[in-house]
Amino acid sequence: MHDDDGMTTSRKTRPLLAALAATALLAGCNAGAGTSTDDGSQEPGDSAGAEDGGEDTAAAPEPGGSDETVRVGLVAEPASLDFTTTDGAAIPQLLLDNVYETLVTVDVETGEIVPALATEWEVSEDRTTYTFTLEDGVTFSDGSEFTAEDAAFSLDRVSSDAWTISLKSQLDVVESVEAVDDTTLEVTLSRPSNSFLYALTTRVGAMFDTEAVDNLAEQAIGTGPYTFENWDRGSQITLERNPDYHGDAPYFQTVEMRYFDDANALNNAMLTDAIDVVSTVQAPESLAEFEGGDFQIVEGTTNGEVVLSMNQQEGNPLADPDLREAVRYAIDHQSLMDTCWAGRGELIGSMVPPTDPWYEDRTGDYPFDPEEAQRLISEAGAEGTELRLRIPSLPYAVSCGTVVESMLEDAGLQVTIDELEFPAAWLETVFTNKDFDMSIVAHVEPRDMANVFGSPDYYTTYGTEEIQTLFEEADTGTEEEQVAKLQEAAAVISEDAAADFLFLLPNLMVADPDITGLPTNAIKESFDLGDLARG
Questions:
Q1: What family name appears in the similarity comment (predicted)?
Q2: pLDDT digit string (tens) for 207-227?
Q3: Distance from the CA of 20 to the CA of which of 213, 375, 410, 525 falls in 20 to 30 A?
Q4: 387 pairs with which residues across the strands?
Q5: Which CATH number fits the domain that encloses residue 198?
Q6: Do 186 and 230 lie in a common domain?
Q7: Contact 148, 121 (CB under 8 A)
């Protein structure tokens, strides 16, 4: 609405946030693929039967009423607690919304951006000044007060050398940040940006204590419903209920995030009552083990596009666009998904999931056509070309890698699979050094197309001038222009065979039948633990 002073004002009541399962198999599947949010508008979901982006399986009991522990099973353990300098989704999955909070967040039931540590905000008519009113009386878990000075410090710090991961670029549009008083923060942008407010819902919007950032890798001090308790490396991370939390206290006193080496170990832990929740099923064919038993199974969608990346740097075989097109034609995506992920998931053909407003089905751009693949390979004189498929040691990548290898060899290429330990080896070899021809990884952050394909320096090696222009026009334009430009960008990326998009990962969870607050869809970076309870 518009106030009399000409300011655009957004005021919404704070809802009880739905818990998010930002899956363990995705934790690190992004491998630092930044959350470059392409806009700040709502996320109407139109997949997996959840039109609004995800519904809880049941209403949770009264919060804060138990001294129980909930045990959550995952696979990809964080490499560090510091998501400002360490890539991978496992850290925000654990800490965002649970230990660290943001000024605003996404309500997964409506897709709206809603208040968190900010109770309201105003946007100037020219869309370059945001004035946030902060909740009063909030404290960090070390007892210090959260004020606008902390908020200004946190946002300024993203653009400093303290943040080193690529997704820090989401806040490049910020020109200045000022703490007007203890509960008022003013952020000035260099230009209008559709993505700015949405970016604040991600890890770049996390609020830090000005006096507690010296050891972020091992210590997490935030304002959230849980506090970091301890880390038994290789086994589990424990969170405890924050006794001074400013909002509704969570139901569970303790959360144990337990990490397992493989899918079988994770399943066995659930079957033997060693854990209460499988945050994501690592072998979808194993769901039969739980069907008909004393378990609940949740199935929905995610933001996790499983991407077959292709190194297009000069001198590499896949710098040839004809050879990249051949790769896309050579892959039977339905057969691949049926084989390596038990047919669970969705074929989308691009870097845009159906829960984004600019989604279009692009599976028709490169339908399975082995004869066309062979023709392109022959015309390029590339028969027998050797390609190094370097994949992370994550279940979906390992399962799908052998299928990709077989299909590309059927088309006349030679493929060598290297399985790299995740996260460290994969991040160094593929993500940082770009020493690969192809890789397979799931980019799980919301609205990350611009970050993944907007820079030639990113590991995907694309980032043409044309695509950068489209992303900038989408960010600065009207809502209608934004949707149109991002649809155009997705089409250009697909048609240029900048990568192949194998399928969209499903959200598959298994839990005790009385666990409530489990989401249908996982469309945020965090696994929001605050709404989990026992009914």
A1: Belongs to the bacterial solute-binding protein 5 family.
A2: 999 999 999 999 999 999 999
A3: 213
A4: 415
A5: 3.90.76.10
A6: no
A7: no
Q: Is the dihedral of CA 55, 60, 62, 65 positive or negative?
A: negative
Question: For the chain, how long is the longest CA-to-CA vector?
Answer: 70
Instruction: Answer yes or no: do 363 and 392 share one domain.
Output: yes
Q: Has residue 20 been placed in a domain?
A: no
Helix (H, G, I), strand (E, B) or coil at 87: coil
Rounded distance between C-alpha atoms, residue 507 and residue 497, angstroms: 27
Six token digits for residue 225? 């419903």
530 and 518 in contact (C-beta within 8 Å)?
A: no
Q: What percent of the chain has pLDDT over 70?
A: 88
What values do phi and psi take at 421, rounded to 5?
A: -55, 135
Q: Which residue has the tokens 């001090």?
A: 221
Total count of domains within the chain: 3
CB neighbour list of residue 353: distance below 8 Å, 6 or more residues apart: 47, 301, 302, 303, 305, 359, 504, 523
pLDDT category, 76, cuts 50, 70, 90?
A: confident
AA identity, residue 143: G
* 347 closest CA partner among 322, 325, 364, 372: 364
Query: Which residue range forms the structural domain that includes residue 199?
Result: 100-205
- Say what angle helices 395-410 and 333-340 make with each other, to 10 degrees: 140
- Mean pLDDT over 35-57 rounds to 34
Q: Is residue 201 part of a domain?
A: yes
The DSSP element (H or E) to which 150 belongs, if any, is helix 148-158
pLDDT in tens, 247-259: 999 999 999 999 9
Cβ neighbours of residue 179 closer than 8 Å, sequence gap 6 or more: 147, 148, 149, 151, 152, 185
* Mean local confidence (pLDDT), 350-364: 96
Task: Report pTM.
Answer: 0.84
d(CA 535, CA 529): 15
* Mean pLDDT, residues 74-93 taken together: 92
289 and 354 share a domain?
Answer: no
Structure tokens at 215: 């050891």
Written in H, E and C, the secondary structure of 428-495 is HHHHHCCCCCEEEEEECCCCCHHHHHCCCCCCCCCCCHHHHHHHHHHHHCCHHHHHHHHHHHHHHHHH
